[in-house]
Design brief:
Length: 143
């Protein structure tokens, strides 16, 4: 019962890729779907400009780190407390940049009442409202 939004945003907090999932699925299962969805939304030149990926602890998994390493992307994902992987110092900037994603969710939940709570029974309709809200965010920034 419920829906999770998995979003990739640019440095301005504007969405690039949005994927929905059931609330009882783990976050890490949709990471690759979000990353693959970016290639559908952006052209090759803009994809080449992507240097690093920031995510929260829910996306801490070995296969995600390997996926990013194979694509030559720097990964800044905090390790869970029970993680057996070695922790590095690349997480220093995590809290300074995480606000960009949180700002997107604040714009989505506070600025667009229809998306704050999922009233639609059909997931495609809800995703449609999310896409409309994202389009309006782009229009506000471009003004």
């Amino acid at each position: 019962m419920g829906t999770k939004l998995h979003v990739a945003v640019d440095c301005n907090g504007l969405p690039v890729s949005i994927v929905t999932s059931c609330a009882n699925e783990h976050d890490s299962t949709k990471f690759i779907d979000v990353m693959e969805n970016i290639s559908e939304c952006l052209d090759d030149e803009m994809i080449q400009q992507i240097v690093s990926v920031y995510a929260d602890k829910g996306y801490d998994a070995k296969y995600i780190r390997m996926y990013l390493r194979n694509r030559n992307l720097a990964c800044c994902i905090p390790y869970k407390k029970n993680s057996k992987l070695m922790q590095n110092n690349a997480q220093r900037n995590y809290n300074k940049t995480r606000y960009v994603v949180e700002r997107f969710f604040a714009w989505l939940k506070c600025g667009f009442r229809r998306t704050a709570i999922r009233y639609e029974r059909v997931a495609e309709n809800y995703l449609g409202f999310i896409n409309i809200a994202s389009f309006l965010m782009y229009c506000r920034v471009l003004r």
